[in-house]
Amino acid sequence: MNNEINTNIKRDSYKIDDLKIYEDINPNEKITSHRKIFRKLIIISKKIIRKLLKWYANPLAEKQSGFNSRVRDILEKLIDDIDFLENDVQIKQLKIEDLEIKVSKIKELEIKVSKIKELETKISKIEEIEEKLQKLEAIESKVDKIDETFKLELSPSSRFFDKKSYSQSGEDNIVAYILKYLAIDINTVKYLDLGANHAKEMNNTYYFYENGARGVLVEANPSLIPELHFYRYNDIVLNNLVSVSSDEEMEFYVLSGDGLSTPNKEQAEETCKINPAITIKNVVRVTSITVNDIIEKYFGGKAPNFMSIDIEGYDLEIIKSIDLEKYRPLAIIVESIEYRPYLPINVKVNNITEYLNTKDYAEYAFTGINSIFIDSRYMKQLNQDK
Known about the structure:
Order of helices and strands: HHHHHEHEHEEEHEHEHEHEEH
Helix content: 40-55%
Structural class: alpha/beta
Shape: rod-shaped
Distance between the termini: 81 Å
CATH class of the largest domain: Alpha Beta
């Protein structure tokens, strides 16, 4: 309703100026009459009445003129205020419309940003899938290489999974699995057998020799050298005592028990004490040689792929003597239990494990007798390359 009043006032505002005509009331205006009969009489009568009421009519006329002037001023001010308010409303309405347009654009942008984020998520997933596919392709390539290397099909009937072990507790099979998994051609494998003992039985390297690998066998017991030369004629056989220094004449205690001979007198006597059926058969003097010298002279300064260490009572000292920063075999097999004449349970020693851990070698497997360590640095670099 207020809008209708404002509209009507605005529409008729031009008539305000007409009020000026009627604003001032003149009590002395000319008296006329529209009647023809008694016209003069009427005019005279009106003049007489006006003169008689002049004392009363003139003040009323003045007040009415003042009132009319005031009313006209108020109406003009009201119309101006209404015009101002309408302009202000229009400006605010335009601002509101502008804000609504901006809000609408912001909502559109939010929708676009949301779609962009969805696309980024999809792109990220696609990239992740592509990366996994590349890794799968790399694995497939390695599997193909493994298959070609060993000339076998990866199935339960495969010759690799039906192979014979010559080690005491299957250590050679575990190392063969590691090399196979890493796609290292067995024909290219180089090994170092410290304390080789017999050429085949209870030997950690004969399986590899049988399949084309070659290496160096070191045995201090001179009575075992002919056997090693006969069955391992393609290997280098050294009749030396592995020690922390080279070219020294050292005593070696040959025990009646297979694989128990040692350069450590206390170890030999302790073994005989634990198992009275074992005796010291002979004490021989053998020239010592270090592992570092063996690698330099017979491997051209490059570490073999894996190393088997069985120096009764001396294993930790031998391992500590190796420069594992310069020569890092991929795998190391080493005895990690105390000798017992019965099946050894809960007699594992951890000093070798603790030391090799400081050199970034991790224990990959424990067979109950021997621990197999793998080079963590090599595996880390291999995973990064993948």
